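User: Predict the structure for this protein chain, please.
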Amino acid sequence: MKSNRTVLVIAYYFPPMGLSGVQRTLKFVKYLPQFGWQPTILTVTPTGYFAQDYTLLEEIHPHHIDVERVGSLDPNRLFRKKGVVKMPSERWRKILTFLSDTFFIPDNKIGWKRKALKAATELFEKKKFDVVFATAPPFTDFLIGAELAKKFHKPLVLDYRDPWHEYPTKYYPTPFHKWKNYLLEKEVLHTASRIITTNRRVKELLLKRYKFLEYNDITIIPQGFDPQDLADGAMPVRRSRKMRITHAGVFYGGRTPKYFLQALKNIFAEQPRLKEEIEASFVGNIHDEHLSLIKSMRLEEIVTTTGYLDHARCIQHLRESDVLWFMLNNDRQSPGKVYEYFGLRKPILACIPDGFLRQTIKEAGASVIVDPTDVGGIASGVLHFYELFKEKKLPAPKEDVVMKYDRIELTNELSKIFGFLAE
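Assistant: Here is the predicted structure, written as structure tokens:
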């Protein structure tokens, strides 16, 4: 057995791209050397995207990790000189999704596959990787990983950050599109030596759809928080004596601030004095229609928006908040930001449907959980936390639950899977 084994990580989304989709892969890569695995990253050359955060790359510089960047013939390439691209409105997002899912299978990153395979083959000849690790979406990453695993007879580990067939915003314009995606997913699952999901719901969906899979073929490694991100931060600097409720992340698809804003509007209509006691903050890119919504509800003095912040500044903003809020309209996705909320030991206002995430947050405690569109429930949750805030009794999640989501330990779990497969 080699003392320092190697893994090829296939990840289209990787820094300097920002947003939550890069965090899981970045943290695995950062900590794998600690457990005897040297990763090499195969990713796309810098391209147009909704956010960029070059500070994230600084996290892996001390570990001398190779990052191989390969060009791609996909729509993002059109904006490569522009860098940061403004997020489309929800109407345009639906149109673009329709066009993308109509003309590209499994996704519009399929134009990356040929060049990525060529580069990966050259890397294999130099490094003789022990394991191939592919993370998705985009699910083109899985196709690349499967071809490499078959060509070089190496174990393939698939990492489902989100489901493929049941992805919440996935559109199937014809039965053929649905059937073709099914066949592609089935093929890569047959090739995989181990499958990883971020949550129980995605594992259940895979086991139900693909009867050849067995329970132990799929391991759940949840999202998490990096303790180094949360340690040794600047001391919180409060802007005012108000209770601050903060949301971090992007609103898209069925995720919307509409119901939360309506709850605030109702609270202030009934108790105008609370305008001087409660404030809200949205950290991250925000659509023009949501800015218009804030204005139409006359909440401009209450709700502030920061735009995209690099990860360190985002964490600091969350640290300075009293209550952290998020909403999700499905039980399949597992937003990484929730687990950073845990790591910050803050109370959570969660607007989510029944499912694994509701159970996870309930287990941690220090939360109010309501349905995503329950305006009255959201208002009651805000007022509940406000009363605790006045009494200086805001709760923190249970420490034993929080520590289950430490990314260092989660990476250790991944390294053990690699080690088992590479024997």
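The domain at 229-404 is CATH 3.40.50.2000 (Rossmann fold).
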